[in-house]
């Protein structure tokens, strides 16, 4: 079965399963084995094909944080098909002797962040049409439109960087691309959450509102598997450690 057909069913389960039942349903239907070889009963996908699944999971986590370990488990089972539920992919991969453990975990997190920001952008754009000030939807104010445009730019940039990094999973390019993806997602999350709160106003601060779930998840992910300093430092060391022009360094990633 192709990745696109798997994704259609995956999204259907995420949309239809209520509460924590979603995790059990995904497991029962074999989605945790997406990257296990077909001859072993899995889906036979390569980890590089998981980016759309990361987006879907990230978009669902605002209301269902218990889905956070699903992507980690899928990737872990590409290494060890017998792996149980994994809640820390980097630690699991290091124990398995993988030198790229930190980079792989960072890429997975960047994908989840991109999905969460995509959902948060849609939520914020919709609310801007509902919330009114001075008798008009706030979406009609130029200042809000500018903020939304910046939020959209940051969201798309994070998505592009994450997708680019997913394509490098299992290749020597993973280190540099992971650094770019995680650093870019971290920076985008900071801007996106600020704009979302500004547009939602006081209602977005309440714990009952779904925005708080996305904001909490994004803040946690910004620190998971390396914050800005770790990945900006990695890029800086790689650039300064070689006799190469900056533009050529970027092209080499």
Give Rg in angstroms.
19 Å
Q: In order across it, which strands form the biggest sheet?
A: 1-2
Task: Find the structural class using helix and strand composition.
Answer: mainly alpha
Major sheet: 2 strands, antiparallel
Counting DSSP E segments of at least 2 residues, the number of strands comes to 2
Number of self-contained structural domains: 2
Molecular shape: globular
The CA-CA distance between the termini, in Å, is 31 Å
Provide the CATH architecture of the largest domain: Up-down Bundle
The percent of residues in helical segments reads 55-70%
CATH superfamily of the largest domain: Butyryl-CoA Dehydrogenase, subunit A, domain 3
């Amino acid at each position: 079965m192709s990745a696109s057909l798997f994704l259609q069913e995956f999204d259907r389960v995420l949309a239809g399963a209520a509460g924590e039942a979603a995790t059990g349903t995904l497991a029962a239907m074999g989605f945790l084995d997406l990257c296990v070889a077909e001859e072993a009963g899995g889906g036979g996908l390569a980890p590089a094909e998981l980016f759309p699944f990361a987006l879907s999971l990230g978009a669902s986590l605002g209301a269902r944080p218990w889905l956070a370990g699903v992507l980690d488990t899928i990737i872990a089972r590409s290494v060890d098909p017998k792996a149980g539920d994994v809640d820390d992919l980097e630690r699991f991969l290091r124990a398995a002797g993988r030198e790229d453990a930190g980079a792989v975990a960072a890429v997975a997190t960047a994908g989840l962040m991109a999905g969460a920001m995509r959902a948060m952008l849609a939520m914020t754009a919709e609310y801007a049409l509902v919330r009114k000030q001075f008798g008009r939807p706030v979406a009609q104010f130029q200042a809000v439109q500018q903020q939304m445009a910046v939020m959209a730019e940051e969201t798309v940039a994070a998505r592009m960087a994450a997708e680019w990094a997913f394509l490098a999973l299992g290749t020597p390019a993973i280190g540099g691309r992971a650094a770019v993806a995680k650093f870019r997602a971290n920076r985008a999350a900071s801007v996106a959450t600020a704009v979302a709160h500004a547009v939602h106003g006081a209602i977005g601060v309440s714990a009952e509102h779904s925005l708080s779930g996305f904001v909490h998840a994004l803040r946690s992910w910004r620190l998971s598997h390396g914050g800005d300093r770790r990945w900006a430092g990695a890029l800086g060391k790689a650039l300064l450690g070689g006799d190469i022009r900056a533009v050529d360094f970027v092209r080499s990633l």
